[in-house]
Design goal:
By secondary structure, the chain is an alpha/beta fold. Helices cover 41% and strands 14% of the residues. The chain has a seven-stranded parallel sheet with strand order 3-2-1-4-5-6-7, with helices on both faces. The longest helix is centred in the middle third of the chain and has 22 residues. The structure holds nicotinamide-adenine-dinucleotide.
């Protein structure tokens, strides 16, 4: 069912990839979708609302064979509809990229001690459970193996001021990656997380301490080479490709090496 208008060469030629989480052209998902399409894949992207659809539409218009769908991961009916439309459009799915995270602003402003029950539920539901919910709809379409990729941050294992409940959600997400990898290995489906260093995006701007996190990477990471969405996107391309055929259940740091430093 692959659209013959999609690119026919490249390491992902003939592959169908779903990229969830386009907010605007600075989204990590946007760069990943461009990279996967550039490698020959046919892509489907998802966005949460009409505002995000505008930038997603620009990407779709510039990408032969690409399609887009609205999907709020808090709504089971949206997820079910996505699974149905992907089955109809693609038949088989080879790669699922989950690039979605959210915490209510109040949860990132106060002491961690003040985390609310509702804030916890919302943050972990959207940022971690949604990987399982998306996989439930897409795994049945991964009939020839597959690669599932999600986005995490060092705040999963280290305490960053005001990252708060989002750090707990990232810890849950990384554990979810390992459990899904163990569960899906028999179906030759690999599941990995990319732990990206700080990048200026809409989600990042919502974190009050983001400027300090970004400054730390620039000042202290061993590598002084450019870092941003393109570097994360090439890693996603690697994980989607057969070059990563023996890698599953891992958290790969893409952060100019910042995470290895003691000081
Ligand atoms: N930017 C960084 O510094 C950085 C670093 C490490 C990890 N990450 C992670 O990368 C991922 C993508 O973030 P980004 O930085 O590209 O920012 P972004 O704001 O462009 O992307 C976040 C996406 O989550 C989506 N989203 C939020 N609630 C949703 C819902 N209910 N249903 C569906 N989608 C929803 C938003 O619409 C948006 O598309 C997130 O998981 C984020 O935590 C970002």
């Amino acid at each position: 069912m692959t659209d013959d208008t999609a690119t026919t060469d490249g390491p992902l030629a003939g592959k169908n990839c779903v990229v969830m989480g386009i907010q605007n052209r600075w989204s990590i998902a946007y760069a990943i979708a461009e990279a996967l399409a550039g490698a020959g894949a046919r892509i489907a992207v998802t966005y949460v609302d009409d505002r995000a659809k505008r930038d997603a539409d620009a990407l779709i218009a510039a990408t032969p064979g690409a399609v887009g769908h609205s999907c709020n991961v808090e709504a089971d009916e949206d997820l079910d509809a996505l699974g149905t439309v992907l089955r109809d459009e693609f038949g088989r799915v080879d790669t699922l990229v989950h690039s979605i995270g959210y915490a209510p602003a109040a949860e990132l402003q106060n002491r961690f001690l003040e985390t609310s029950r509702q804030g916890w539920d919302t943050t972990l539901g959207i940022s971690a459970y949604s990987l399982i919910a998306a996989a439930q709809r897409v795994v049945p379409l991964m009939t020839d193996g597959g690669s599932i990729i999600t986005m995490t941050y060092l705040g999963a294992t280290r305490a960053f001021p005001r990252y708060n409940v989002m750090g707990v959600a990232k810890a849950a997400l990384e554990a979810t990656v390992r459990y899904l990898a163990a569960d899906l290995g028999e179906q030759r489906i690999r599941v990995n997380a990319i732990s990206a260093g700080p990048i200026k995006t809409a989600a990042a701007r919502g974190i009050p301490g983001f400027g300090d996190m970004h400054g730390q990477l620039l000042d202290n990471a061993p590598l002084k080479v450019p870092f941003g969405q393109p570097q994360v996107a090439t890693t996603a391309l690697f994980l989607a490709s057969d070059a990563a055929a023996s890698i599953t259940g891992q958290t790969l740091f893409v952060d100019n090496g910042y995470s290895i430093m003691g000081m």
